[in-house]
Write a structure and sequence with these properties.
The chain is of the alpha/beta class. Helices cover about 35% and strands about 20% of the residues. Helix 2 links the parallel strand 2 (about 25-30) and strand 3 (about 55). The chain is built from twelve helices and 14 strands. It has two domains: about 1-185, Rossmann fold; about 195-325, Rossmann fold (3-Layer(aba) Sandwich). Strands 3-2-4-5-7-6-12 form a seven-stranded mixed sheet, with helices on both faces. Helix 1 (about 5-20) runs parallel beside helix 7 (about 150-165) and helix 9 (about 215-225) packs across helix 12.
């Protein structure tokens, strides 16, 4: 084991997989000579040459469209979109082409593509850089949606994603790149999709969250414990496939639930979580289900993003309200 930041774990996963499988190629804006805007790909072009680590034009639709063509010829592209907000420029290629490839070819041509992209606030980025848009892609059947919160999961889930025969959207929390570090095995390992992680065990209320919001839930749970409230915190890890059985069991354990995520409330993935719990855990609920989310408003200027992103105070108040019901 070695203590790694999330960005180091992601880089190691790509390096090890490129060494293991010569069909894996990496492509995106500035991923080669510069090593990526966040240095996630630093040193990889020098190690594997420009034939496998490819600097592309500043055109997301071209990048993803080219990756699809490579996948159809048997290659296994890893695409970096510099920020999740820019993925709207290649939404057609991702959702109408890549995601449907297996279906429209009757299984003859699955698109083995991993699309990495950072997202999330509290890093003072300009407009279009911090939006949490995972729910847009969760509706695109054929895509798998992966959202790690730890360095350990980032490496294991990324290796799983690259080897998966279907296209995977791999969302990386911006503020976790260097702030999040934990023990990560140096050797090869994978983390399976569709299996949530129990972050903290508790008996009074279940907090459901994922990716960038997990540290917020952990901090809130610690503060709640000082008040005598035992919070059970779970990290979904993957939204598609979703660990439905694990999610239901975690909420049935306490009978109360608060869902936390950075995206806006309306049609956010938290609404899907609540609907599933309403359908499958209704008779175990002791109180109404609640959400803590960003407001239904455009992401604000960097100087005031603290008023937009859900924090521990909002989450604690929601938990206290649930416990009163």
């Amino acid at each position: 084991m070695a203590v790694m930041t999330m960005i180091d774990a992601i880089r190691q996963a790509m390096m090890q997989e490129m060494e293991r499988d010569e069909k894996v190629v990496l492509m995106g804006e500035d991923v080669g000579h510069l090593g990526g805007v966040f240095r996630a790909t630093d040193g990889l072009q020098q190690r594997f040459t420009s034939k496998r680590v490819i600097d592309t034009p500043l055109a997301e639709s071209v990048i993803v469209g080219s990756a699809y063509g490579l996948a159809l010829t048997g290659m296994k592209p890893i695409v970096e979109i510099q920020f999740l907000g820019f993925s709207q420029n290649c939404f057609h290629q991702i959702c109408q082409q890549i995601a449907r490839s297996r279906f429209r070819t009757r299984g003859d041509h699955p698109a083995q593509i991993t699309i990495r992209t950072p997202f999330g606030g509290n890093v003072r980025t300009p407009e279009f850089h911090s939006d949490s848009m995972e729910s847009l892609f969760a509706q695109s059947t054929g895509l798998k949606i992966v959202m790690p919160s730890t360095a350990y999961d980032a490496k294991g889930l990324l290796l799983e994603a690259i080897r998966d025969p279907d296209p995977v959207m791999f969302f990386e929390p911006l503020r976790g790149y260097r702030l999040q570090s934990d023990e990560v095995p140096e050797e090869d390992y994978t983390v399976p999709f569709g299996k949530l992680r129990t972050v903290r065990e508790g008996d009074d209320v279940t907090i459901v969250t994922w990716s960038a919001a997990v540290p917020v839930a952990q901090a809130a749970a610690e503060q709640l414990a000082e008040r005598g409230i035992s919070a059970h915190v779970i990290d979904l890890r993957t939204l598609v496939p979703l660990d439905e059985a694990g999610l239901v069991a975690a909420v049935e354990r306490t009978g109360r639930c608060v869902v936390l995520h950075e995206g806006p409330a309306t049609a956010g993935f938290g609404a899907e979580v609540i609907t599933l719990l309403q359908e499958q855990a209704f008779y175990s609920l002791e109180a109404p289900l609640r959400r803590v989310t960003a407001p239904d408003a455009p992401y604000p200027m960097p100087s005031i993003e603290g008023f937009y992103i859900p924090d521990t105070g909002l989450l604690i108040r929601a938990v206290e309200e649930v416990l009163k019901d």
